[in-house]
Specification:
alpha/beta; six-stranded parallel beta sheet; 9 strands; globular; binds fe (ii) ion
Amino acid sequence: MTDFHAHILPGADHGSDGMETSLTQLALAEAAGVDTIIATPHYYPQIDRFSDFLALRERTFSELMNRYHGPIRILPAAEVHMCVGLDHLNGIEELCIPGTDVILSELSFRGYAGNMGETFTRMLDDGLFPILAHVDRYSHTLIENYFSLGLYGQVNADALTRHFGRKQLVEWIDEGFVLALGSDIHGTKPGYAPFEKARAFLGERAHVLDQAAARLLSEAKLPG
Ligand SMILES: [Fe+2]
């Protein structure tokens, strides 16, 4: 089972304040049955120098790999805060999940969240495969507009533990628009409890998401 969205690299962002926290997060993931984690530290192109982000990710990932010898496969990627023109970033492919064209893309909460259409379209034309992070956080209309452009989404586990709004999320899973489940873990509380609860709620659909995530990681092609 894959956790598609997690802040577990020690000191890479506010998700983990250091090695002990990261190792605890991984122990919790193991106990929940997770076998693959996409490590997605925040990247804010408006704030962070790209080279600094890449260097910090590389350093924190290798520090973690030197200490963690458990069974979970960890893939260093990013949660990329979208901005207009991001497709022009030289080396943008470094933000993809390794070996894929998949790029976890976070929409802003501000008004310009809906202005990314042309940027996303150019990313798709360039062969990138943006997945919208935590589609549960935005208006349904906004997200469905992006789905109609050819984008897909990731859902956060905690949104599936609440009654309010989850019917829509299940529909998107059933329609094939939501392809991945993520813990979006920050720190060690509540750890992987929402992830396990969400999977219990999803039942067979959790396996459908596992298969979709596995396809994304192995082929990184648009489904269907
Ligand atoms: Fe996140």
